[in-house]
Amino acid sequence: DADVTQTPRNRITKTGKRIMLECSQTKGHDRMYWYRQDPGLGLRLIYYSFDVKDINKGEISDGYSVSRQAQAKFSLSLESAIPNQTALYFCATNSGQGDTQYFGPGTRLTVL
Amino acid sequence: AQSVTQLGSHVSVSEGALVLLRCNYSSSVPPYLFWYVQYPNQGLQLLLKYTTGATLVKGINGFEAEFKKSETSFHLTKPSAHMSDAAEYFCAVSPRGFQKLVFGTGTRLLVSP
Q: How far does the CA of residue A16 sit from the closest CA of chain B (Å)?
């Protein structure tokens, strides 16, 4: 079984809809991250969390919110989706600075 | 702010040729350095990383990278390309004393027969 799972893997939605992307990890790590990937831009950090009570904004947090429901679960929400949020979204986890980040398989989101 | 530059959004090589993917970072203090690979329709997988110690780092699948402080570089190499190496490669840095990973824009490696 994969260490980091993301659901759904693909999602098509309409402008204005609320959508939640979910991430679970079985590595026992405290730190979790949400990134989005756009062609030619690499990965950009949306939000990150170092434990259940710690949530931090990344470089592109506008339009997004997160919830850390447990050590193993970190969800990303788009309250009112817009077309420029169409992207590939990745969840990642690690145990500390300098430690390898382990990535999920990604969620491809299309906002029409 | 910390930044990472990957020179060349696409690199094409023939099977068996040397692979060289370039990465430069901007930081007065050497950060932690990583190379990740992304195969089509998959997540990112760590190839190798430098945190401390020996500046030549060996990774999976025959790749290696050398940290050069004087050049602020961490270029990725492989002596002989294989068709299965075709993928997108990302250089990333984590500044010491900070907690985040900053990615370059990626280089797509194309391998022709």
A: 27
pLDDT tens sequence across A38-86: 988 899 999 999 999 999 999 999 999 999 999 999 999 999 999 999 9
Return the sign of the alpha-carbon dihedral for residues A26, A27, A32, A34: negative
pLDDT reading at B80 higher than 90: yes
CA distance B43 to chain A (A): 4
- Please, which pLDDT band fits residue A100 given cuts at 50, 70 and 90? confident
Q: What is the percentage of chain B residues whose pLDDT exceeds 70?
A: 96
Q: Do A50 and B99 touch (CB under 8 A)?
A: yes
CA-to-CA separations, B21 to B27, B34, B39, in angstroms, rounded: 20, 13, 16
Burial letters for B36-61: b for 16+ Cβ neighbours within 10 Å, e otherwise?
bbbeeeebbebbbbbbeeeeebebee
Distance, in Å, from the CA atom of B22 to the CA atom of B109, rounded to the nearest integer, reads 12
CA-to-CA distance for B101 and A46, rounded, in angstroms? Answer: 12
CB distance B101–A105 less than 8 Å? Answer: no
Structure tokens at A77: 């929400």
